[in-house]
User: Fold these one by one.
Assistant:
Number 1:
Amino acid sequence: MKYTVLSLFPEIIEGYFKASIMAKAVEKGLVEYNLVNIRDYAEDKHKTCDDAPYGGGAGMLMLAEPLGRALDSVVGTGCVVGAGRALPVQSGRRVIYMSPSGRPFTQALAQELSACDELVIICGRYEGIDQRIIDLYVDDEISVGDYVLSSGEVAALILIDATYRLLGEVIRPESLDEESFAGGLLEYPQWTRPEVYEGIPVPDVLLSGHHENIRKWRLKKQVEKTLKVRPDLIEAGIKNGSYSPEILDLIGETK
Ligand code: SAH
């Protein structure tokens, strides 16, 4: 997977690629990254990248021209104005604009994007970007949640983190199968050493070594937790038929 990130502050993104599991993924060649400073594509002497929006209103907007040139430098072609977008949607590459008015980012979307060869991610600042860039270049506008951040960099890191860990070999596949959202349930609670912490012992069943009992107990905890904090996931899971009879029984018992 290649991540190409266009930003006015690429240094915010850079550190992420240089630490921990991501650094190892880069070292192993599973992940490649290219950080593009949009300001390098501003042509006036002040390197201006923003201006007031037409029609008035608070704040500034990122200028189309530097961002368009920066995009041309990574996607390799000039705009075909009037074509609806600059480039044919290439299956391997998606151009994404991080935006609070985009479609919601979910585990399912992370899974879909992790199959791409390259994600080109535009990070907005100020009041956002000129609509013509969206019309000409962007395949997907994606929001990381119903709140407004001051910058697209933080949102881009969420998207990058959630997708790269799904690439084969980055994380053990068993770990991914059991975590929150896999199978329409949140993850079960977990404990590690010591056996007693601040007077609170680890649940007996986890020390029993009885794998089937542990499995059942964890599944029950998953159902309890999901019913309590995310009843919407349970409703959707029932509707989509994604639960096994065992899970449906547990939901019936717990409700
Ligand atoms: N005026 C805009 C907000 C701009 S916030 C509005 O009201 O919709 C500045 C930048 O932060 C945006 O261009 C976008 O790239 C990023 N951003 C803010 N909130 C976000 C969110 N929830 N998801 C993804 N990106 C977000």
Number 2:
Amino acid sequence: MRRPACPVPRRAALAAAIATLAALAGFAFAAGPQAPPRAVDEVEVLHFWTSGGEAAALAKLKATLRAEGHNWKDFTVADGGGGLAMMMLNSRVVSGNPPTAAQIKGAAIQEWARNDRLASIDEVARADQWNTLLPATVSDTMKYHGRYIAAPLNVHRVNWLWINPAALKKANAKPPATWDEFFAVADAMKKAGLVPVAHSGQSWLDMGAFESVAIGVGGVEFYKRAFLRLEPSALVSPEMEKTLATYKRLKSYTANTGAGHDWVAATAMLTSGQAGMLMMGDWAKAEMRAAGKRPGVDVLCVPMPDTAGAFTFDIDALAMFQVNGRDKQAQQDLARAVMDKDFQQEFNLAKGSIPVRLDVKLDKFDDCAKRSGADFKSSARRGTLLPSLAHGMAQPSHTVARMWDVISQFWAQDKMSAREAMARLAEAARADAR
Ligand code: GAL
């Protein structure tokens, strides 16, 4: 008897969780959990790439599959970050109607594989020698028991700080490298009548900024102890309390925009010059480009304060589900297309990330991407290449979702102290360890 799909709350709790997340995330999705069975040649892909830039990047993959005779069907969940998309995926798998493939992150890929829900694409990976093309950090999370079950598309860097140069000039300031410098720049921007930090009320973005603060305040080792090994002595520590206090201090430098103000709107606040800085991964570049801004020129990119030597990675991948024999060819074609050298260049130029294949040159990429490429390699050598907690690379999706909630509540509730938030975060992180 098969164990349930991805280890999630029971069906009733799952439905409640979906309703809660839906209310929180203000989402819309194209195909609900009970979508009708697919036509024979359809390739249905669950993803949350719904912004202009993301859709433009994905269009290249759709074109490849259509050219090979497959009819691409979107199962789209517009919620950014992917939290709700995973809930919708769970309900489809539990109801016995999984999509052909889904955009899933590292830790969740392993969860699905452990529950024997994924189809192997090892045949394609061996034929195309993926092991020689991918860094071990990447290939390890795409395999289960040594066989590939997911195809990686990209490497996003999360610990970026984006700066509008006109705002910097107006504040007569320089790009900050440390947290002391950051708050000095933010004060100068505030005095110049600008919103220093563009912010979106989405939980996954709160967590993305928080994890970068943790590295800057506590250091790489602290991040590994607290968020990779979930050590109680790190989760409850002076470093964690200082991280939370530094994170909350950011709030007075943001405009009160509400949860409906998503990551695309926050990025637009920066590109329009309404805000001076933005803490976000480099998927934001796709929207900057859509606004006619050149990353590295019209928008500056620097590592988040005090994180210059670290690289927090967020890798998007398509995991193939065990649907039935008819989709096998489509899944193999999809896997081959994702890792195609030309596709890797074109998709990542549009997406804002860097190619996951080591043999794709970055000559055509912007300076921020070139810096990402160099830092990815140097941080891998130094042991400061870190899986992003916020983007599901470091812990199971239900653990991450619980931690998102705590950080979002801490941000929203002015009365919640750093000490109380620290206790709740430790409880959320360790809930499965009991
Ligand atoms: C991340 C994902 C990116 C981008 C971003 C905003 O989790 O890896 O590809 O989609 O969310 O939605």
